Amino acid sequence: MSVEEAIIEKSIKKNGNFLIAVLQDIQEYYNYLPEECLIQVSKKLQIPLIEVYGVATFYQSFSLVPKGEHIIVVCLGTACYIRGGKKIVEALTKELNIEPGSITKDKKFSFETVSCLGCCAIGPMVLIDDAYYGEMTPKKVIRLIEELKR
Amino acid sequence: MIKLHSINEYEELSKKFNGSKNSNTHIISISSGTCGHASGSIELEEALKQAVKGYEDQIGLKSTGCHGFCAAEPNVIILPEKIFYKNLKPEDAPYIIQSILNGEILDNLVINENGIKYPYIHEIPFYKLQRRILTASNIVIDPQNIEDYIAIGGYKGLIKALRMQPKEIIEEIKKSGLRGRGGAGFPTGIKWEIASNQKSDIKFIICNADEGDPGAYMDRNLLEANPQLIIEGMIIGAYAIGANRGWVYVRDEYPLAVKTITINVNNAREMGFLGKNILNSGFDFDIEITRGAGAFVCGEETALIHSIEGKRGNPSQRPPFPAEKGLFGKPTNINNVETWANIPKIIEKGAKWYANIGTERSKGTKIFSLVGNVKNTGLVEVPMGITIDEVVFDIGSGALNGKKIKAIQTGGPSGGCIPLEHFHLPIDYESLKKAGSIMGSGGMIVMDEDTCMVDFARYFINFLQGESCGKCSSCREGTQRMFEILTDITEGKADEESIELLEELAYIIKATSLCGLGQTAPNPVLSTLKYFREEYIAHIKDKKCPAGVCRALLTYKINPENCTGCGVCKINCPEGAIIGEPKQPHIIDQNKCIKCGFCQDNCKFDSIICEI
């Protein structure tokens, strides 16, 4: 059995035929949904591949392309937005030289935005990998990126 | 963990917990929700653990969910005195321990408003006007420990419910006047009755924890701080309706909430509150956790059901309503997190007690996330009927940085704005609707003079066009078109007809969309047009943004008096629009300037002026 198959088998055992949960397990392992896995899932769950693809592209937390080594997520929830979230996005766009939703050429950073992280009282929020940072400014966020570049 | 097999065993355990005094004389309750973590509570807790060494017999540490006062994170509350220390750093830890041992209060760490110090939680203006019922226990419960919940009387509501007939429970909920906290405000008791009347062997219940409204996080807080309250509410509801399986559909963007609710469902099962023959009542019920995958529309109940089934979250036509034909085609009752959390107290203390809180048609308390440009941001639980003024100015302590507040926004992307002149209105379902907004799930975003209402409307429409599932062309294409028009307005490219066009589109999208997302999508535009039309006109006619937000309408200039000619702006300008010799005042070539503002962000001498 290939690694892909083993992961999918294990996930189906745990989640039954709940497609989203299975895709979440794959995404957690690979950081994205490899094409081969989607084909396998379709076969094993007997769900047409077009439907699997439909689900994989409908939900924002799934990605069909690999993510960077570090994942930078800027919150653009309402409260973060009016407290300057847009400026954080602009600063990162310039610093990383990529638009939100893409990955740097050296694959070091994925740069994403999110509708709300639920930490609205201390915005603007930035999530870097699993760490939350509140009350961000363009300067503070660039300092964090510089540390990661080292 | 002991497994409870009967109501008697529960009562014995409850008595034991009530009788046993805590071995520590003092407890430091550390606010450790997601906001706390983001503000440094983990480091603080580590420092407190070090500092308390040698005094563990006198002082205990408890890591709890969020205390609600997020602007004061990281914070701790010293129990039993209820002394509140704000914005702590790890260095404060040894002083806190010493002060407790010496019976003193650390003046420099207490809340200080307008020169007055408020050491005790019940005196602090932020807490004083609140009526914390659902959030009262957050400060004393370790959310990983079900015994803490039982020690404060948890599951008393369930015990009472198991001694009642299902019909009696539904009557009690109806009498309480509780209305759905997810947004629409449908009477919960009636919803339950409809589901209960369905003839089917299999029925389901769902807890909607897909808190998608940007700017709202009450549900995250309840899931992280007092998850057993939600679970208890769900068990009571399932018993009343006749359901044997339940789901919590929780947003994937809330990892701590997912973890906490999962642990707690397992704990409840281990203790015998979930599973077969719960406390020997003959009633079976169990809960599963489903993680969302990042789709706002899944907060809509039919979309949520499809998502649990593993499909795309496309809403369906109602009727049939989920109560008739829901998850896997079976009768399904869906309530929001906060609605479920209200249930145990209503049953325990009675409908009469509950109905005494609030106004004639809006009962109980409501948790709001008071955020945006307000001083005291955080979660506030207030009785229905309190005025907006009281929440924003008395609890929230007014604007940040001495600015002038101009409006609040409630109801998330489906809601609307309420301007300052209407702040005397009481907060209840009807008043907010009359003012052109909705109660919604509880986001309350405060905006000051620096918020451009056109840009703000554009923000929501952009959000909604991205989240539209695409099923109805009016919503899919209409929100996109509205976004384009609003973009033109904010860039000074629109003519006067665009307001009319926006209103026409709004009418069509509302009238012809299938689900709540489309039906309410134009609301942010309509309500800003209603109250802040002059801002739209200023953008269109005068090509000016009064709040100074819409960059295309601003002019960046360099004040030669402040400019030292350091050249930092010149290096940072992506367009090469800044000209000047070293140590001589620089100037901006207006033909090249793209108004990105990098020069202003980087100038150390405040010499870049932005003219409105």
Which spans of chain B have pLDDT < 50 for at least 5 consecutive residues?
none
Give the mean pLDDT of chain A. Answer: 94
Major sheet description of chain B:
5 strands, mixed
Shape of chain A: elongated
SSE order and pairing:
The complex is a heterodimer of chains A (150) and B (612).
Chain A lengths: L2 H13 L3 H12 L4 H11 L3 H10 L11 E6 L2 H19 L5 E2 L5 E6 L11 E3 L2 E3 L4 H12 L1
Helix pairs in contact in A: 1-2, 1-3, 2-3, 3-4, 5-6
Chain B lengths: L6 H13 L6 E6 L2 H6 L1 H11 L7 E6 L11 E4 L3 E3 L7 H10 L8 E3 L2 E3 L6 H4 L17 H6 L4 H7 L3 H11 L11 H10 L6 E6 L8 H8 L1 H15 L3 E6 L4 H17 L14 E6 L9 H8 L23 E5 H13 L1 H5 L9 E8 L5 E6 L4 H8 L9 E6 L5 E4 L9 H6 L8 E6 L4 H15 L5 H18 L6 H16 L3 H5 L2 H18 L14 E4 L9 H5 L5 E2 L7 E2 L9 H5 L5 E4 L1
Parallel strand pairs in B: 1-2, 7-8, 7-10, 8-9, 11-15
Antiparallel strand pairs in B: 1-3, 3-4, 5-6, 11-12, 13-14, 13-15, 16-19, 17-18
Describe the structure.
The complex is a heterodimer of chains A (150) and B (612). With 150 residues, chain A is of the alpha+beta class. Helix content of chain A is 51%, strand content 13%. Chain A has two domains: 3-58, no CATH class; 70-149, Glutaredoxin, CATH 3.40.30. Chain A has helices spanning 3-15, 19-30, 35-45, 49-58, 78-96, 138-149, and strands at residues 70-75, 102-103, 109-114, 126-128, 131-133. Chain A has a five-stranded mixed β-sheet, covered by helices on one side. Chain B has 612 residues and is α/β, with parallel strands linked by helices. In chain B, a hairpin with a 5-residue loop joins strand 13 and strand 14 (416-419). In chain B, helix 8 crosses helix 11. Chain B is globular.
